[in-house]
Amino acid sequence: MSLHVVVGQLAVDWEPARNAQRVVSFLHAECTPGGLAVLPEAALSGYDDDLSGLAGLDAAALREAHAAVGDAAAELGVHVLAGSLLPADGGWCNAALYFGPQGERWVYHKVNLATHERGRLVAGAALPLLDLQAGPEAVHLSVGVQLCRELKFPEQWLVLARRGASVLAYLTYAANPRVPAGVWRSHLISRAAETQRFVLAANVASPVQHCPSMVISPDGVVLAETTTTGPAALHADLDLTQTSGWLLSQQRGDVVTVSYRR
């Protein structure tokens, strides 16, 4: 049960057409049929820590960008996860979008908003799983997705693992020079080791990024990691039989319980 994955560390700006062009070029250069590509938070819409371009974001241009990536996923026969701000009731939301090889679509709305997003973006209210058939053997795969600040809430990752996710995709725009170096990297390794799941982390290409793009195994071993803050591609072959429920089965439910809704 093997799956080829590629994590893309890409530049992002507030021009959806330019973002889509970067993404499509990346998919053509780096992806193989049946594989899974994970790209950064807001890779299609644009983003920054001030949401400076939100007022000028064109919903029509954004739809065209999404369509271009969807067409590329279908043409190449690949599975793509990419971040985007989306129009929502009452404003905008921060989301992860899935584009499938048969035209499938799926969306996750960020549940735990960053401080500068609160009051400006609409928070999600569920932790759904993405189910797909991937790889040369068309293996059934459940993917849990988290966005940026949600790295700091391990209970959300544990819920996704308990629901059956074997891969946890992490899309982020982590480019804050005030955050101490190494902290978020350590969090990512912990999220993989404590859930015993693969973690695929895609960050934006930025000289001030504070979290590397990475691929981490269920035992916390770093399989691939960027050595640059510029654009990069990380490739890895995942042996999905390595995921385990051994640690989750030992949680002391008589002492600590996390409740959740499906």
Question: Can you tell me about this structure?
Answer:
The chain is of the alpha/beta class and 262 residues long. The chain has a single domain (2-250), classed as Carbon-nitrogen hydrolase (Nitrilase/N-carbamoyl-D-aminoacid amidohydrolase, 4-Layer Sandwich), CATH 3.60.110. Helix content is 21%, strand content 29%. The protein has helices at residues 16-30, 59-76, 154-162, 183-195; strands at residues 2-9, 36-38, 79-88, 91-99, 105-109, 129-134, 139-147, 167-171, 198-202, 214-216, 222-225, 232-239. Helix 1 (16-30) runs parallel beside helix 2 (59-76). The longest helix is centred in the first third of the chain and has 18 residues, at 59-76. It starts with a strand and ends in a 23-residue tail after the last strand.
Nutshell version of this structure?
With 262 residues, the chain is α/β, with parallel strands linked by helices. The protein has four helices and twelve strands.
In CATH's first tier, which class applies? Alpha Beta
Oligomeric state of shown chains: single chain
Q: Considering the protein shown, what is the CATH homologous superfamily?
A: Carbon-nitrogen hydrolase
User: For the CA atoms, what is the radius of gyration?
Assistant: 17 Å
- CATH fold description: Nitrilase/N-carbamoyl-D-aminoacid amidohydrolase
Strand percentage lies at 25-35%
Morphology: globular
